[in-house]
Amino acid sequence: MTRRLTNQDAFDVAMLHLLNQGHSCVNASGQARYRGPRGKSAIGALIPDEFYVTSMEGKKVQHWLAARGSEYDALRERLGGVTPSLLDELQDLHDRSGACMPSLYRHLVVAGAQRIAQSFKLSMRLVHRCATYQHIWGPQIVTHAIPAAAPVVDVVPAPVVDVASAPVVAPAPDLAAAPTPAPEPMQLTERPQEDLDLIARGIAKAIAAARGLDQPGS
């Protein structure tokens, strides 16, 4: 016998499925489907495999729940305890989330689930727990890049010098130790007055030459 779902059951199953899947279930033209190559919708997650028929596609939930005949009897029994407007809200959230990155899609699902939970007095405990797990990093294989090998350089050994056969180089003379000869004092003549006059004339002539003048009588 099929277990009848409650509002909380339907809410938890549909929201956890969308968070795990990370995208909507649509066909090639972008129309929402209950089931397709890329998974299931919010309502599609509530339909067991043995109850699903392709004739459900393109129809509202209330249409095939209210349809006559035995084709949907088992499904009506399973969803009979769920408020019809809640089923509409769950499918509408799936359809309006659209195509986007999984991280953004999950953010939209959690925000929509919060609104639905407040409207129908439902618990968000499992939804918050699942959303938290989506941000936990699992085991990862860390690969380190292998550094490129350095080019091979041929090292030429230095020639070995035979110290015994090497020429002996005489040390440089110590210039600091050599005495510097003192300048010889100027030798004056026997007539010092004439020498002083000669020196004075030479100085005057040098000053005149530096100024560009020509001393008369020079």
Question: What would the average pLDDT be, to the nearest integer?
Answer: 78
Order of helices and strands: HEEHHHHHH
Structural class by secondary-structure content: mainly alpha
Question: Tally the helices: what do you get?
Answer: 7
State the end-to-end distance: 148 Å
Major beta sheet summary: 2 strands, antiparallel
Care to describe what's here?
There is one protein chain. With 218 residues, this protein is mainly alpha-helical. The chain has seven helices and two strands, in the order αββαααααα. It has a two-stranded antiparallel ribbon. Helix 1 packs parallel to helix 4 and helix 1 packs parallel to helix 6. The longest helix is centred in the last third of the chain and has 20 residues. It is rod-shaped, with a radius of gyration of 54 Å. The relative contact order is 0.11.
